[in-house]
Structures are given as C-alpha cells and as structure tokens.
Amino acid sequence: MKRVKWSILIVALLLIATTIFISIRRGPKMGNAAASSLPTFTEEKIDLKAPLVKINGTILTAGELEEELNRVLISPAVHGGMNPQKRDQIRKASMEELIVRELAYQKARSLGLKLEETAIKESLDKIKARYQTDAGFKEALKAEGITEAKLRQRVERDLLLHKIHEQEIDAKARVGETEARKHYEDNKARFIMPESVQLKHIVIRNEPGRDESASRKKINEAYKKLKAGAVFSDVAYKYSEDDYRVMGGDFGSVHRGQIVPELEKAAFAAPLKKLVGPFQTSLGWHIIWVAARQAEHQLTFDEVKSKIEASLSQKRLQQRKLEFAKELRAAAQIKYLAANR
After folding, report:
1. Domain boundaries, the chain
2. What residues pair up with 83 in beta bridges, in sequence order?
3. Helix or strand holding residue 6 (H, E)
4. So what's the pLDDT on residue 43?
5. What pLDDT does residue 72 have?
6. 262: Cβ–Cβ under 8 A, 6 or more apart, which residues?
7. How many CA atoms does the CB half-sphere of 272 hold within 13 Å?
8. For 195-295, which CATH class?
9. Using 50, 70 and 90 to split pLDDT, how confident is the model at 1?
C-alpha cells in the first residue's frame, strides 16, 4: 500500500500536533451506512487525492487520512503486526479524529480566535531546531513536497486548535477548590490513611535443596554485622535474597495486607528502631528494623487537594471532549463519500 513518507519533519510537527488533541478514540459512533462508506486497509495503491468526506463544504482526502495514520501508528512497521479488522478500526477511528479536528478548526475561525506572531515563530523555530543546518531543514521540506509557507499554515492550524481546546475544553473542565473540598467532605472515608510502618528487611530464602544450617549461618552472619554497627542497607545489599536487596532492604511505608501475614505480624509488633530477628517463616529467615510507625489517621484536605483536583479534572476533561465533539457534529453537515471507498 502506498503511504505518506514517515519523516523527521512529521515527527517535528508532532511537537505541536500532540498538544492539541481534540477528539478521543471513543468519540461519537457513526451509523452503519456512514461507517461502511469509509475506506479500509487493502494492498491496493491509494489515490492520496481521493476525497473521503465533506465537512461543511471542506473536503478531507485519503492523503490526510494517511498522514493521520502515520501519527497514530508512529512506525509503518506496525501495520504488518495487525490483523485487517484491527487496521480497519484504527482507520475509521482516525477518520473520526480528522472530522472532529476539522470541525474544531472551523469553530475557532468562526469565533475569530487569533494567534500571536511570537507563538507561531516559536513553534516554527522548534521544528527548525531539529535540523543541524538551514539547508537540512529545506531539504526535509523538499522531501515532503511542501513549502515553508505551507508548513507555517499547518503550524498555525495546530496552534489554533490548541487555543480552542484551551477555551472550549480545558477551561470548562477545571475543578476549583470549592468543588474539590465538597468532594473531600462527601468522601472523607476514602481519605483515611491506614496504620503503617517504615520497614527495612533482610531475608534468606528457603531454597529447594539448600541445607537449613547454611541458611541459618548466613542470616546469623548478617545479624552479627548489624549488631557490630554495620549499616543496614549495606548488609541487606550483601546478604538479602529478595528484590528489595538493591534498595538496601528498604520496603518503605507498609500497610496491613501488603506483605505476607507472618512478616506483617512481626513488623507491626516490633519495637521502634531495634533489630528484630533472626526469626523464621514459611519464606525463610528474616531480620527486620522498623524505623517509624504511624497510626491510622484522617488525611487533611490540604494533603489531598491536588490529587482530588487532578482526578476530578481528568474525568471532566474526558466528558467535556465528548460533549464538545457532539456539539460540533450537531451543527455540522458531514457527508461520507461512499463512491471513493
């Protein structure tokens, strides 16, 4: 299948394009007739100038769809690893992305949104900076078959999309302190920090075929070094036989239910800042050190404010994207050109 060349220039354009993502993959569904009119992946050559859909009089072509697919799939090699059904799904979803993006662009124009020349220049400079020389940049443009003026138009379009995204989606999805606080008060039980201990740990595992006396000897060696004043993390790194060895045996903050019951019981009963062990469990021989203990407590609003705002904003952002796409479609005339399947 003939494809638009995936080049450094397209990658450079993604510096802008990925920040103005308007629609989402799970956008409004097409009817059966509309969906069936979209082109599918085949091994036939594609006429990149072929019209695919008319949006308020603006035509989107097969070439524009191919470029969008390159942005989505990143590498043409990915195509070979997909079954035809999956490829068709991606193609149809990409077409829907293009439609919503075009509608958003038209909306931005109708609202009279303007761009600062400095913003355009900054974006163009970022693209040019990916090339060592001006000649290299111009060669890339030539390879893509576009002029600097055309590149500027594409940059302006993407920046305008970014601007309407901020105005119609980001601004309307923001969650303020009042709403975040209400969520906190309504869901206080979700913001209780359970009892925890700051745990350090050394383990000599019960390995099949290992002599029990050898395991006991090794854990005792580690214990003697600790009692003699060696640094716990150094001893853990040398002796311990679990994944936390590389972190000096530091488990960090541990809540009930996060470690095996036998070890949990010992950890939550251990005195602070004293070696406990060696003791044996079904896993092997252990030495533990509890550096701190914190009782169950209610997190304050200030402690969770940023997380609440981020969580609520993210949910609202996704909802607002769907709403905006629906609003754009409701006011648009969209015609899928079935004759060009």
Report:
1. 8-175+319-340, 195-295
2. none
3. none
4. 46
5. 67
6. 281, 282, 283
7. 7
8. alpha beta
9. very low
CA nearest to 276, candidates 289, 265, 285, 264: 289
Q: How far is CA 305 from the centre of its chain?
A: 22
Enumerate the β-bridge partners of residue 279: 286
Whole-angstrom CA distances from 68 to 73, 76, 139, 143, 212 are 9, 12, 22, 18, 63
Place of tokens 């072929």: 50
pLDDT in tens, 53-107: 999 999 988 888 887 777 766 554 455 566 778 878 888 888 888 999 999 999 9
* Band (4; pLDDT cuts 50, 70, 90): very low
Superfamily grouping for domain 8-175+319-340: Porin chaperone SurA, peptide-binding domain (1.10.4030.10)
Enumerate the H helices of the chain as residue ranges.
Answer: 8-17, 32-36, 62-73, 84-110, 117-128, 134-144, 148-165, 171-173, 177-186, 212-227, 232-239, 261-269, 301-330
- The one-letter amino acid code at 207 reads E
Q: Confirm if 166 and 321 have CB atoms less than 8 A apart.
A: no
From the list 105, 122, 126, the residue with the least C-alpha distance to 9 is 126
Q: Are the beta carbons of 322 and 27 closer than 8 angstroms?
A: yes
Q: 193 with 296: CB under 8 angstroms?
A: yes
Q: Residue 23: pLDDT above 60? A: no
Give me the DSSP letters along 55-75. Answer: ETTEEEEHHHHHHHHHHHHSS
N-to-C CA span, the chain: 15
Residues 105-146: tens digit of each pLDDT:
999 999 999 999 999 999 999 989 888 899 989 998 888 888
CA 23/CA 98 separation, integer angstroms: 9
Task: Please report the pLDDT score of residue 91 as a whole number.
Answer: 84
